[in-house]
Amino acid sequence: MKGKLNDRDAKCPFFFAHTKNSVICEGVIPESSAKLNFDSTKAKNIQYEVFCCGKYENCEMYRAIQENYEE
To answer: Could you tell me where the DSSP H helices lie in 1-71?
Structure first.
């Protein structure tokens, strides 16, 4: 992915938003959210591009949240 990263590029159904160094997802507790803080913008961008915009089924957060729906 080249250029600016936009929220609309995310494919994950549990994605809410992202900032410079964080990704915000639906939480594992009903009516909550989870904010993943990264030490660098580069690390956040990798997470966002690979998982939020791509193979979200492989994301640890996706799997944890999805597990709640399967119970």
So the answer is: 41-47, 60-70
Identify the residue whose tokens are 């399967």: 70
Residue pair 65/48 in contact (Cβ under 8 Å)? The answer is no
pTM confidence score: 0.86
Query: What are phi and psi for residue 61, nearest 5 degrees?
Result: -65, -45
Which letter does DSSP use for residue 38 in this model? -
State the first-to-last Cα distance of the chain, in angstroms, to the nearest integer.
35
Residue 16 in tokens: 């809410």
Across the chain, how many H-helices and E-strands are there? 2, 3
Q: Over the stretch 1-30, which tens digit does the pLDDT of each residue have?
A: 455 678 888 999 999 999 999 999 999 988
Q: Which residues pair with 33 in a beta bridge?
A: 26
